[in-house]
Amino acid sequence: MKNLDFIENLSSRLKEAVEKSPVGDLERNINALLQSAFTKMMLVSREEFDVQTEVLNRTRQKLEALEKKLSELESKK
Q1: End-to-end CA distance of the chain, in Å?
Q2: 66 and 51 within one domain
Q3: How many domains does the chain have?
Q4: C-alpha pair distances (Å), 60 with each of 11, 19, 24, 64, 66
Q5: Other CB atoms within 10 Å distance of the CB of residue 51
Q6: Full-model pTM
Q7: 26-69 pLDDT, tens per residue?
Q8: 3-state class of 42 per DSSP?
Q9: Are residues 3 and 37 in the same domain?
Q10: Cα atoms in the Cβ-side hemisphere of radius 13 Å centred on 31
Q11: Owning domain of residue 68
C-alpha cells in the first residue's frame, strides 16, 4: 500500500514536471501545428464526418421517396 502511494506520488510529480518543462511546450506546439495543418487541408473530424454522413443518408432516403411518389403520379396520367 505504501509502495503504491509512493508510485502514484512519483507519477504525479513526473507528469507535472513534463507539463512545465519544454517538453510540455513542445507537445502543445506540435498539437497546434498539426491542427493548423489539418485545417488548411480542409480535413474534418470523425464526428463531423459521421454527422454529415447521416445527413446525406436521410437526404438520400427522402429523395428516393419523392422519386417513387413522382413515378406513381406519372403512371396515373
Answers
A1: 84
A2: yes
A3: 2
A4: 52, 48, 47, 6, 10
A5: 12
A6: 0.48
A7: 777 888 888 888 778 887 889 999 999 999 999 999 999 999 99
A8: coil
A9: yes
A10: 6
A11: 44-77
**Whole-number CA gyration radius for the chain:** 27
Unique residue bearing C-alpha cell 432516403: 61
Distance from C-alpha of 48 to C-alpha of 54, rounded to nearest angstrom = 10
Residues 38 and 51 placed together within one structural domain of the fold? no
Contact yes or no for 24/18 (Cβ under 8 A): yes
- Cα separations (Å) of 36 from 16, 25, 49, 50, 54? 26, 16, 18, 22, 27
C-alpha separations of 45 from 1, 32, 52, 57, 64 in Å: 43, 15, 11, 18, 29
Same domain, 39 and 29: yes
